[in-house]
Amino acid sequence: xxxxxxxxxxxxxxxxxxxxxxxxxxxxxxxxxxxxxxxxxxxxxxxxxxxxxxxxxxxxxxxxxxxxxxxxxxxxxxxxxxxxxxxxxxxxxxxxxxxxxxxxxxxxxxxxxxxxxxxxxxxxxxxxxxxxxxxxxxxxxxxxxxxxxxxxxxxxxxxxxxxxxxx
Length: 167
Description:
Blueprint (H helix, E strand, L loop, with lengths): L3 H10 L11 E4 H8 L3 H10 L6 E2 L5 E4 H15 L4 H13 L4 H54 L4 H6 L1
Antiparallel strand pairs: 1-3, 2-3
């Protein structure tokens, strides 16, 4: 799978600028879908609900995404990966569009989400500890069972022909 960073590096290799603010439409929906792991349907939905600004179109009507769009999608994917609800993602994007006077609100939204992530991580660490404990218990029980099985088979098996001849 092509990543967003790979797409941007490919553009740089062709001499195209890939600064965060570059609004030049140059990436087709298939390329963006592959780079982001999102489906074309999801990309169109993101545009329709307002997570992405209106995407430019080619002369034939095909969507053309900019590097700015790719960078936004990269950030939105990270927010989704952390479990941020789409409504909160929309709120963030709306604040972003409103301008620099919303920096404090954007920061607060991200700080609150970071705290949610920290709680989730704490819960996951606790769950991991429980799983590790269970795995250790089962490993010990399996080792004990294998030891008993070997002891039983060595005491209950008939003597080998060479052992009978020696005795």
